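for the recovery benchmark. tokens below, seq after
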């Protein structure tokens, strides 16, 4: 059975989970987009 970091640290979220949370908050999304453009 392969172990992942999430097995040891359950608070770690997937990339998709983080992006979904950023996308659901307007201010966070604006900051995130500004990082990618710069």
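predicted aa per position
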């Amino acid at each position: 059975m392969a172990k992942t970091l999430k097995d040891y640290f359950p608070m770690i979220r997937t990339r998709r989970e983080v992006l979904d949370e950023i996308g659901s908050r307007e201010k966070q999304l604006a900051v995130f987009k500004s990082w990618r453009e710069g």
